[in-house]
Protein: diguanylate cyclase
Organism: Leptospira yanagawae
Amino acid sequence: MPATFDLIWLTVLAYGTGHITSFFILGYLGSIALSSMSLDRNYGVYNAFLATVLFSSMGFLVYYEILPLVNIIMPPVKPTLLSIFISSLLLGGSAFIVNQIVSKLFSSLTDVNEKLMAIAMTDPLTGLSNRRSFFSNLEIEMARQHRSSNPYPIAFLLFDLDLFKSINDTYGHEMGDLVLVEFATVLKSSLRKQDFPSRWGGEEFLVLLPNTELDGAIVVAEKIRCTFQSLSFAFKGKQLQCSTSVGISLLHSPEENPESIINLADQYLYEAKKKGRNQVVSEKNHSV
């Protein structure tokens, strides 16, 4: 809309003053207006009309201001209404084509940028969000927690696949990758829409559960642990079963340091490993 008002008053100024300077100003601001159109994803009749008005006005200015100067050094050329109309249509049509080309180029660049951003925020193997994306979503969730009239806890579930290194060493990295992908699938199918799973690194996965008390978090962790343990992976005629250990911690308010809470989940996870793996540890059952 600002571009529209700029064009209106500038066109009036151009016709009112009758100075050649107005043509150059109109052309300059016209290019700015055209650029602003290309930044709008809602292309259509409005932008086409705006571009046509812009360049039609320039067509009239060419005939009424440029041609008198040209006539000084060339045989006189007398503009007619038909020639003015045709030139305006040609310039307006050219503006429309240029606008569409710029719009499509900008749209393509925007799409490419969105895809690159998605790649930067996603683990390529499992399709889950990566650590960078996790912290970005955590900031959003903590801001929501802060705005809530009834502050709620955010649960962190830190998973580590048991004996994963031996799986890679014994069966190869191809099998290891398959196990990681299957575990990611279990996560996706076991969580709510508002929950946020991520690959934390290596064979570790961190899940964010908004508005979840400790008992609810334990239920979710046990569900994922049992589902994953029930899977069977076939390899060269042999069946492989895997398990996972889990550490759970809760962030009760935005004033708490989330990294410290995640480290606490990591401590509980380490305790689960020491106790024999394939189990869930939280403040409810950890060793004092």
Notes: The longest strand covers residues 154-161. The chain is about 60% helix and 15% strand.
